[in-house]
Amino acid sequence: MQLFISFLFILSTLLSTSLHEYHLSNTEIRYNEEESALQIITRIFIDDLEETLRKNGHSGLFLCTEREPEHAEALIADYLEKNLLIKVDGKAQKFSYLGKEISDDLIAAWCYLEILDITPTIKIEVENNVLLDSFDDQKNIVNVKTDSGKRAMFILQNGENSGVLDL
Known about the structure:
The chain has 167 residues and is of the alpha+beta class.
């Protein structure tokens, strides 16, 4: 009986917590020299993204489900445009939002972005404010790499939200 009560306590504790105990996004930025393009993939927990969009006045999005409204993609694109800033050689770049898909573990969305017709010669700067306004403990990991082998990795958070890859 004691084992059963312990099991119920542990189960209720697990069910009362969120899907994850940390707030993290992961962004991969690759400069494809052959295509003169920055190819960007951002992985964001779906519940965190929904919470942030809800705080911005957009509720009931049911992201990555059959119930997702048609305008959800535009909301995500707009949010990322305002919170993921990329400069190439000091000039701010506008990316194209290509779409998203659900991760294999069904808890995150992979968002695909691209910046075309660029040839960086000095540096690539990244400012990542994704979810920083919603979660005090939010960390945004950013990996930047080029086909020629230059690499940088940043762990960005409130107070330290940008990093630079010098070419």
